[in-house]
Amino acid sequence: MNAVEWDESLSVGDAHVDAQHKYMIELAGTLAKALENGQANLVAHEALNALDAYTKQHFKDEEELMQRLGCVDLDLHRKKHASLLMDVQNLKGQMIARMPNIGEYVIKWVQKCLVPHILGADMRALKGVQAPQQDS
Fold this sequence. Notes:
With about 140 residues, the protein is mainly alpha-helical.
C-alpha cells in the first residue's frame, strides 16, 4: 500500500497549517514504510500516539486561525475535526485490541479521510479567506 506524499497541491496557503499537514502525512509515510518492511506493528503504537497528539494540536491551531480569519463555516469544520479525532481514537482502540494489519488501516484513514479533509474542507475554509484582495 502506498502512503500519501506531501506536495504543493495540498497547500492551504498558510505556512504553519501546511507544515502541520505535512508532518501528519509524514507520520503515515512512516507507517507505510514499516508496513512494506513487515515492521508496521513495531511502529504503529508510537506513530498512532504521535498522530493522535499532533492531530489534536493541529485542529486546535487550525480552528483558532479560522476564527481569527472569520471563517463562516467554523462550527461545521469543528464537527468534522471531532469526527476525525474519533476515527483516530477508534484506530487506537483497534491497536490496543491487537487488530491485525492496523498499519494498513491507519494508512487508509489518511488516504480516505485526512487528505480529502485537507483538499476539501480545509482548502475551502482557508484558501479562499486568505486569498489576496485585489482592488478593481
